[in-house]
Amino acid sequence: MTGTPEQRPGTRSPARPPHKTLRRRRTRPNLPAGAASLLWLVIIALPLYVLLATTLQSRDAYFDRGPLSVPTDPTLDNYRRVLDSSFFTYLLNTAVVTVACVAIVLVLGVCVGYAVVRARGRGAQRIFQMFLLGLAIPAQAVIIPVFLLITKLQLYDSLLAVILPTAAFALPVSVLILAGSMRDIDEELYESMALDGAGPTRILLRLVVPMSRSGISTAAVYTALQAWNGFLFPLILTQSPESRVLTLGLYDYVGEFRVDVPALLAAVVLSIVPIFAVYLFARRQLVDGLMGAGGR
């Protein structure tokens, strides 16, 4: 019997190509996912709208119309008031604290992570466990011993009093991230450099640091966020306006009987712009480093 397979009795029609089925499935709209995404967008966009819209209103207009009102007469007076105050002093102090904390954490964290990964004795693993123990200790639980220690060292009311404890509490997470990133380096690369006569310092600088850039970037961004947004240590360990950081500078707009909400939120917007730019620049390295924090 002649004819095509479709014409022969008892024969099955050929199956549809898989790519057509996949293409048809992809064209179907996912209404629940779209509704959930729209709801999530509203949840995120509403606070941002309130934040930005409030900064463009005067204090009287804000209290008369409410936070959700559209600014009918937008003004930049709130930003001018913030910039004319001690904002740049607070910004400089915060930048010094952040850069110093990042430098301390990266130098110590890279060395500790390298020692934990390459050392074969139990001592390095015990040190690593001690650093991991620091993850379970909140700063609020040890603020009184830290205050007494800073006072005994005669560092009270200085930027160094904020830098040292902030870097200490950011170090455990950074060591965990860096050690996990260094474990991903192939053992053959270590052995090849050792056969070439490279010492531990050269291996660290020529091999480990270049191949751990994602982990180093993650530790740097994490430490910068912690230092930039720190509030407890500056509040307890500093007192004078010359040592004040941005988080404490927001108190300038909070009085005993009133709060200048538009100026306060304008200061918040200006304070988050630098650290938000850093996050946008290194967000991919941050995600990659956190994914490899557990090691192999």
UniProtKB/TrEMBL annotation:
The residues covered by the ABC transmembrane type-1 domain are 91-282
Q: Where are the annotated coiled coils located?
A: none
UniProt feature, compositional bias: Basic residues = 17-27
Q: Which UniProt keywords apply?
A: Cell membrane, Membrane, Transmembrane, Transmembrane helix, Transport
> What Gene3D superfamilies is this protein classified in?
MetI-like
Subcellular compartments = Cell membrane
Q: How does it sit in the membrane?
A: Multi-pass membrane protein
- Per the record, which residues fall in region Disordered? 1-27
Does the entry feature the keyword Cell membrane, yes or no? yes
* Family matches, as InterPro entries: MetI-like, MetI-like_sf
Its transmembrane ranges are: 31-52, 87-116, 128-150, 162-182, 203-225, 261-282
Main site of residence?
Answer: membrane
Q: Which family does it belong to?
A: Belongs to the binding-protein-dependent transport system permease family.
Q: What is this protein called?
A: Carbohydrate ABC transporter permease
- UniProt source species: Streptomyces rectiviolaceus
